[in-house]
Design goal:
CATH superfamily: Aldolase class I
CATH class: Alpha Beta
Helix content: 25-40%
Structural class: alpha/beta
Number of strands: 4
Distance between the termini: 22 Å
Order of helices and strands: HHEHEHEHHE
Strand order of the largest sheet: 1-2-3-4
Radius of gyration: 16 Å
Largest sheet: 4 strands, parallel
Amino acid sequence: MNCVYCFAKFRDVKGILPKEIALKIPSQLVELGIKKINISGGEPFLYPYLYDIIKECKKCGLTVGIISNGSLLTQSLIKEISKYVDRLGLSLDSCNEDVQDKLGRGKHIKIFSLLELARCIKNEGMRLKINTVVTKIECA
């Protein structure tokens, strides 16, 4: 997305965490007394094994949250993950699409689309969270 304020540049990340290692993490967290996990990104839905991870998290008894920019979410995906995700957060930095564009968010995601996704999240029984970055940006 190239959000102008994002701290996550991932310059030193080489490849992705292998599935077999990622699937061990939920039980290790539970052993440490962790009860909740919040998965954020970049965009978590880019990770090819996310569905497997959230299923494992739920199997281990964790409360599962995901923060998404909404770019890869569809109503069918929301329905599919609703069995395993307790809270789904959407990143919304402005209700003005020009501001969203300047921040790097709106080029791919329209506010109306996010509102439709929010309705779908609620309809599927998940809790909805809105994430926003408070910033000053000059708009003409």
